[in-house]
Amino acid sequence: MSPYPRYQEPAKESVIRLIGIGNAGVNITDRLAMRAALSVHTVALNSDQQSLAASVAAQKLVLGPMTTHGLGAGGDPERAIDAARESLGDLQQVVSGADVVILCGGLGGGTASAIVPLLAKMAKDKGALVSAVVTSPFQFEGRRRTQQAAESLSELVKHADALVHFENDRMAELVEPRADVAETFAACDGLLFQAIGGLVRILGSPGPLPIALNDLLTVLRATKGGCLFGCGESEGANRAHEALEQALRSPLLDRGRLLQEAGKILVHLSGPSSLTFAEVSAVMNGISKSTAAGANLCLGVGTAGDDSAPLIVTIIGRTGVEEKKPCLPPALPIEAKQEASVPVPSLAPPREEMPSAAEPAVPSTKTQKVKQDFLPLEPIARGRFEKSEPTIVEGEDLDVPTFLRLRIKK
């Protein structure tokens, strides 16, 4: 019998679970749940029961019904933590069995600020790949929400494998200056929808050039630098150029200018089976013109069986090029700055030579060991007070210190 199997079982499809936390996260989750093209299991978590009832997610969970009575956390993260303690068992089941967990929420409030870092840690402990797409509040929302978002983000960085962070003030560039608040928030939700949809397509779309999880982590795992994101969608004969232009017009790319500062960039093209190599080459050439020479580019291409599917160009990157520190030879001290052509000096002690008569003797820089001679503690002259009358009591001079007088008696 051959030791090798006659066939190999097909690879298990990755279980991708999208979890929306809080009002903003649930809204994005609902928009993704209504798109049948994305094969992802959606979960909605909120402490506000009324808001959660309208969700169309596949799974819904009210956090802490006895703690918040279904009325929400009221913008208080501590109250949301108490609700999480009440629903701890349900939260553990939400992240169990998932290979990839995508967390979505708007930081700054109570529920998302507290629950997103907690779920990231739970999913990480379960062995899942954790990706988080979060926003920070607008400046006009107040100092308290900004501080809560900053504290939540610093905790989230410790547990998330990949982090996409959007600033709402930057996303406001999507709308006109006279747009109302509801329209502005809707535009921000739309950009989050594009980002999460892009991650799902990158991880789950088949094609000639699939993107592995390690490739995605290479771009997003870094904690320093800002996140770059752009997404464009188009159909028709000129779809490649139109989709690229839409992606470069994203406010998080600053019309492509920020690509010059990106150290790592991932470009993914998702389109119909009629996608040509010329279109892929045109998109990559357009992006290469906007990137720095030392940027690390990663390309992925996915195709769908439907010829009517649009061409979608997704650009994900991170600003900040990592600095590589030169390695110094171990025989040289760290402080030494020597050229490579200079030989390493010998560690043997230098040989001392006698100076010639014509040359003046140069004092040696060798450290001399100081020898402390014995200092006798005997009475000495009184110095400038020698002619003054001593203070004699019972035959003892009280001007002499006591320890000296005791030694004299011995």
Structure notes:
The protein is an alpha/beta fold. It has helices at 22-33, 49-53, 65-68, 77-86, 88-95, 111-125, 143-156, 168-171, 181-204, 213-220, 239-248, 277-288, 402-409, and strands at residues 16-21, 41-46, 59-62, 100-106, 129-136, 162-167, 227-234, 262-272, 296-304, 311-319, 392-393, 396-397. The protein has a 6-stranded parallel sheet, sandwiched between helices. Strand 8 (262-272), helix 12 (277-288) and strand 9 (296-304) form a beta-alpha-beta unit. Helix 4 packs across helix 6 (111-125) and helix 6 (111-125) runs parallel beside helix 7 (143-156). It is elongated, with a radius of gyration of 36 Å. Mean pLDDT is 76; it is low at 4-11, 321-360 and 374-380.
Write the layout of secondary structure elements.
Blueprint (H helix, E strand, L loop, with lengths): L15 E6 H12 L7 E6 L2 H5 L5 E4 L2 H4 L8 H10 L1 H8 L4 E7 L4 H15 L3 E8 L6 H14 L5 E6 H4 L9 H24 L8 H8 L6 E8 L4 H10 L13 E11 L4 H12 L7 E9 L6 E9 L72 E2 L2 E2 L4 H8 L1
Parallel strand pairs: 1-2, 1-4, 2-3, 4-5, 5-6, 8-9
Antiparallel strand pairs: 7-10, 8-10, 11-12
Helix pairs in contact: 1-9, 4-6, 6-7, 11-12
